[in-house]
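Posting this for the archive.
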Amino acid sequence: MTAAPQGPGFSTTVEALRLREWLLGPGQATLVMDQFSADDFHLVVDDRADVHVNSKDGSFCLGWFPSGRPGTDGEGWKIAVTGTAKVRGYQMSFDTETPADVVAAAVARVLETSRRV
């Protein structure tokens, strides 16, 4: 069924307006952590049970803070990639309730774009 606008505007379908179900909840952090090998990364679990993963060259860092990163408002994941002398690095954060599947997809893409020099 299509609803035609009576004047300026847009038309849509009832189907397009139906509610969707979304992946919610933090899920399993192993979906993220299982992407790292001991050959290329260091893994440290601190006294708060926060997990830190660093590339051996120090240019990549991932932090997982199940109870929230200290000093932030609910930051659960932090990814940082160091830049070069000519190109700035970047970082991204996800809150504690972001599904691990979503974080795992972001990490996978970051890892896919890396290469040995």
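DSSP finds two helices and seven strands in the chain. Residues 100-112 form the longest helix (13 residues).
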